[in-house]
Amino acid sequence: MNENFGKKTLRRSRGQRLLTGVCGGIGEFVGVDPNIIRLIFAVLTLMGGGIVLYIIAWLVMPEEGGQSSVLEHIVRNFQGKKSEL
Fold first, then answer.
1. How far apart are CA 74 and CA 9, in angstroms?
2. Overall pTM > 0.85
3. Cβ within 8 Å of residue 72, ≥6 positions away
């Protein structure tokens, strides 16, 4: 078994990014080419749900090297607490 098992975290990628890094991050986490994940999102979009899933993933996944997600940043600003992305 891999010694890094359990240490991977799902984060948006900075290196494999076309838009926001969601597909690159999922690809790195799962261990597949990000283009396959992009193709899956394209098929899901044609079926009627890919864009919604992509936006949810963008909101929930923190960026590589970052501490908080976009959604957490929005919630903290709404509460009046200081938050930086």
1. 21
2. no
3. 62, 83
